[in-house]
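Archive transcription. Copying these from loose printouts into the bound notebook so they stop getting lost. Printout 1 of 2:
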Amino acid sequence: MILRFSPAPGIVAALASAVLFGASTPFAKLLLANGVNAWLLASLLYLGSGVGLFAFRLTRKLLRREAAEAPLTRAELPWLFLVVLSGGVAGPVLLMLGLAGTPASTASLLLNVEGLATLAIAWIAFRENVDRRLLLGAAAILSGAVLLSWSGGPTGGGLGALAVIGACLAWGIDNNFTRKLSAADPVQIAMLKGLAAGTTNLILALALGASFPAPAMLGAAALVGLLGYGISLALFVLAMRHLGTARSGAYFSTAPFIGALLSIPMFGEPLSVPLILAGLLMAVGLWLHLSEAHEHEHTHLALEHAHRHIHDAHHQHEHEPGVDPRAPHSHRHRHAPMVHRHAHYPDLHHRHSHPH
């Protein structure tokens, strides 16, 4: 059987996630420049995302327009805990500390390391298929990051850059743990992560002597957090559902270019030759990822799970009367074994092994 498969929903979600997160970096630096404590800012960004998404879910419930998504299960809570610990506590704190001592454009482009860490962990630890084209793309992105670190200006390296790289490693771990949750409601995942991580960081920041900024700064941090952390994460979870972890991380590598682009007018940073060359190398790496085509005959083993879906070649099952199989809906369902051929990504239904 030959099918046509479009990764467009995952690509759009991944790029939109990247735009929102990339834009949050220079705005977070602007908040730091206005005296907001780095650790406290990390907590406010996640609390803004958690509270904002909670209000969104509550509004949808009151209007009876809830999304047809599968809720998190008890078995998935340990993975959520690891997601909060790595990506919600360690990652943002390291990024805020890094931004405090690094130019925003340099920090923004160094955030490409997150995509490389995500890809490497997905390939080595979770055995997700990564072909030669993806590895060449990763090498191009890494070359750009090395060039940037080597000639990024008088304040382009040091402990600040190491802290940004540490944040990227923490988020790379976080992304691969989040893969285990990608069948569940992405808004619920982002909301719970924001509330848990924000509360934890707030307690730690206040215990270390941080004080709340002016109300205007609080509101600005909450808005940046809702857009750059909450909605961005929800979109990234959707991308992983369609594309897998490594590919979603590759698309997400566009985030630093958004941050660097905004940093030039916001902070008057120069458009230097090393910055342009590093950006070109990273762009080549991203193009290699974007132009990948993966197609072969593959076997689907029997599988039972719950997620948002419509009826297509991978979803053919019976419903009780009143359920429209053509409309998005969510319930636990079983997939029968199947063998067919079509272009695909390692999404929820294509996490099979490949010969190396």
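Printout 2 of 2:
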Amino acid sequence: MTSLDSVLVFDKDGVRLTVEDAVATVTLTNPAKRNAQSPALWRALAEAGRSLPGSVRIVVLRGEGASFSAGLDRQAFTPEGFDGEPSFLDLARGSDEDLDAVIAEYQEAFTWWRRSDIVSIAAVQGHAIGAGFQLALACDLRVVAEDVQFAMRETSLGLVPDLTGTHPLVSLVGYARALEICATGRFVQADEAERIGLANIAVPASELDDAVRDLSGALLAAPRDAVVETKALLQGVSGRSYEEQRTAERAAQARRLRDLAGLGD
């Protein structure tokens, strides 16, 4: 998803951000470890969100190598943890307030993908497990290769999914199926992912980049402000009644009509 015309914004801690016109690509760059995640990687992902130029409309998230992301680096559970970082065991011994603050910081890597001014697309191949699954769920859309294997393994380890994945998972597949997927930790493969709404499109691995490029082009074909307003409308549905949604639609349409007539603020 990069080209000779791409501008490299940064490349550090397993994350590379490039921008080409209105499309930014965030790439996980540690294929030797199947793009396993760490606090340093999460900070780099959060920085990627803060570093996006205002011209960006589409953000593509991808992982180098055979796997999108195999989840949390197991080094996190060792007594020594990561160099320069408190181990998870040390964090567990801290106060509730301190632990909450640390987890909230980690979550920042997963929250910005649903900003109303962009549309984010996860291009997912191979394993997307635990934190990898939650990172794919953080995006608005998911295009998957036929070899994809989603799994939420936190419960199997005695933990819970805490990187913002539970809300989008329930929204996409419903409470009962989300509970079954999380509680069993089983794999969800491409055909099922597409059928139950986890994936928008499933394609052969060799066609993944082309499918994402085609989807990005289709999204860019519509005027930016109309897409921004539509995304905000759809995101608010779960918190509004039918009548409240009707009101929100009217207000959004009024803004669009005034803008098109040159009467906007």
